[in-house]
Amino acid sequence: MSADPAIRVEGVTKSFGRLEVLRGIDLEAARGSIVALLGSNGAGKSTLIRILATLLRPDAGRASVDGHDVVTQPARVREAISLTGQFTAVDDALTARENLVLVARLRHLAGPAAIAGELLARFALAEAADRKAATFSGGMRRRLDIAMSLVGSPSVVFLDEPTTGLDPQARLEVWRTVRQLAEAGTTVLLTTQTLDEAEQLADRIAILHEGRILVHGTLAELKALLPPAEVCYVEQQPTLEDVFLALVGSETGRHAA
């Protein structure tokens, strides 16, 4: 790992009453990387994200984001991050442009209209810029939500189960967006319960179970923990998702706006 990671977590614990949610978490994320925090419901994923976003204080241990301690320097951490939850923060009564301009004004940034225009183009929403967000598809809404989270150019983005409730095509749209973030130098920490999401996106994967990280490494390193696979030959049948995307993928892309 880098000597100066974007995210560093050391021995973090958190309990709610007698319930131990985090039991000594150690984790690092290199700058410009995508790290997936994989675990089932109740594993502690969202609690860790909330600590890193300064919404909760850890009971013990230390955590820093972009070099700033989440307990002693919360304001500096908030300046460096953005958090996108499981449910979008998009205002349906506003257009895509108005949503972005509103966030830019709330952040007291100069040139909110220009900022909105750049993000609309970046996330392929320019043609739908002046439509009410209520008319957007699930994938478009999530893309707008992520675009809103990038107002102010945060160096670290937390995505808490970003594809929850999305159809296969919309999920692929979000995956492309996440990859683009990392390619532009943004560090992404995402939580997910979906194995293929972690496999498709992450540079490194941490498996969280009952408040502890069981393993943390690249996909190849995690696969190496199991015995070598036996070579066998089977007939490969298309999955239902393959059929769905083959039938509607091109149509959905054409009419997304």
Write the layout of secondary structure elements.
Layout: E1 7-16, E2 19-29, E3 34-38, H1 45-52, E4 60-65, E5 68-69, H2 74-80, E6 81-84, H3 96-106, H4 112-122, H5 138-149, E7 156-160, H6 168-183, E8 187-192, H7 195-201, E9 204-209, E10 212-217, H8 219-223, H9 240-254
Parallel strand pairs: 3-8, 3-9, 6-7, 7-8
Antiparallel strand pairs: 1-2, 1-4, 4-5, 9-10
Could you write a compact summary of the structure shown?
The chain has nine helices and ten strands. By secondary structure, it is an alpha/beta fold.
Polypeptide structure, described:
- By secondary structure, the chain is an alpha/beta fold.
- It has a single domain, classed as Rossmann fold (3-Layer(aba) Sandwich).
- 36% of the residues lie in helices and 24% in strands.
- It is built from nine helices and ten strands.
- The chain has helices at 45-52, 74-80, 96-106, 112-122, 138-149, 168-183, 195-201, 219-223, 240-254, and strands at residues 7-16, 19-29, 34-38, 60-65, 68-69, 81-84, 156-160, 187-192, 204-209, 212-217.
- The strands form two sheets. A six-stranded mixed beta sheet has the order 6-7-8-3-9-10, with helices on both faces.
- Strand 7 (156-160), helix 6 and strand 8 form a beta-alpha-beta unit.
- The longest helix is centred in the last third of the chain and has 16 residues, at 168-183.
- The model has no long low-confidence stretch (mean pLDDT 89).
